[in-house]
Amino acid sequence: IDSRTAVRAMGPEGETSMPGPLEGVRVVEVANWTFVPAAGAALADLGADVIKVEAPNGDPQRALRNLLNLAEDGPNPFLEVPNRGKRSFTADLTSEEGRRVLARVVAAADVFMTSNLAPVRQKLGIEVEDMRAANPNIIYVRGTGWGAHGPMADVGGYDVACGWATSGMAYKMCVEEGPLAQPPGFFDLQGANTIAGAVGMALFKRERTGETSVIDVSLMNVGMWATAPDILGTPFSGSHGVGDRAESPNPIVNAYRTGDGRWLYLVCLQADRFWGELCTLLGCPELIDDERFVDGAARYTNRRACVGALDAVFGAKTMDEVHQALDEFSGVWAPVLRPSEIPNHPQVEPNGFLPTITPSHGHPFQLVPAPMRFDDQPTVPRGAAPELGLHTEEILLETGMDWDEIGRLRAVGALG
Q1: What is the b/e burial string over 32-58, where b = at least 16 CB atoms within 10 angstroms of the residue's CB?
Q2: What are the pLDDT digits (tens) for 234-253?
Q3: Residue 5, phi then psi, degrees to nearest 5
Q4: Exposed e or buried b for every residue in 284-313, given b needs 16+ CB within 10 A?
Q5: Which of 125, 322, 333, 410 has the most CB atoms in a 10 Å sphere around its CB?
Q6: Among candidates 153, 152, 173, 177, which has minimal Cα distance to 164?
């Protein structure tokens, strides 16, 4: 067993994990930033051998100022989240020799993925026809900001613009000072899941029919998918879906603030089923038969008063007291967690939602795995993000190239 296979077979804390469902699948990725690379990370988590092809100066995300870890040591989340578990290969695709090298790597692959727009794809020689010339069976994936067609097809875009701003989500997240900031990588990661799922379907199609596919996923479409109920409903409701918390049509589908300044969500869609139980557990049984709140219709009519009554109930309790009161509640509710609290949630450890990665150098750290589980085995990232170009020679040797040829390519700058 070679060193790469050994690393890829190790789970957190050195425990051997089962082979992933994509073991034996090879993915070549010419992509930067988070959107498409995060799809590669998900495929790597599931067992694929993902080769990240980088220009000699690397993915620009490697140099992005790390605002998510201001300490002097530890991981760079901007790099690790979309690039863990891959092999890094450097090549100058602006040169003819570099493109020939890429063709050799693609010839042994199953999937090719790129985030480059058409003018750059043409310049680098990585269009569909180029990759199909190297490998007629390759599944080809394009991740774009605004879609593969239309007047903005060749316009660049990040998820804040294409997803957050354009989907209506930012509008719904407006406060008096303006729209709230999008969490880092929010729509990038949703788009990555979409690409990963599409790749799985394309592999299945190729296995069944022998036919390969070209896959297009855009961040704008991903954002619209996430807000589809609002987009669909607005022409009929006449509303843009920005709700006043005090006007919640069902007051027990709403957010409430506790006396110690924490927030929680009640998500009790069957209002009449849970109203009595909720009031009893919260110690306000007098609200059950209050004529203003006696059933769902009454609570809708008097929704401001009902929300106000529940505001007073929750405002008189700390979050710990709410936890104690609702411990046996049969309806759905959840506290609004700070990111620092999530690792301690009781569901995280039993389900393997945050395994520990021990890189070959540096400090161990935790990564969220791809949100898929097969055969009741936890999905485990197969290692940390690779150093730039770490596996270039290894990958070329796998193509049958010898050291003399590798040396010649280095000398002419084809490998960076």
Answers
A1: bbbbbbbbbbbbbbbbbbbbbbbbbeb
A2: 777 666 666 688 889 999 99
A3: -65, -40
A4: beebeebeebeebeebeebbeebbebbbeb
A5: 322
A6: 173
Phi-psi region of 318 (alpha: psi -120 to 50; beta: other; left: phi over 0): beta
232: tokens are: 């669909």
pLDDT tens for 89-126 read: 999 999 999 999 999 999 999 999 999 999 999 999 99
Tokens 């770490």 -> residue: 390
Cβ–Cβ under 8 Å, residues 131 and 140: yes
Return the residue matching tokens 């063709």.
103
**Encoded amino acid at 255, one letter:** A
Q: What angle do CA 51, 56, 59 make, to 5 degrees?
A: 60
Give Cβ neighbours of residue 128 (< 8 Å, ≥ 6 apart): 140, 214
Distances from the Cα of 411 to the Cα of 54, 88, 97, 400, 414, angstroms:
18, 19, 11, 19, 8
- Note the pTM of the prediction, 2 decimals: 0.89
Q: Which residue has the tokens 């393997």?
A: 352
| Calpha distance 275→288 (Å, rounded) | 7
Contact 17, 380 (CB under 8 A): yes
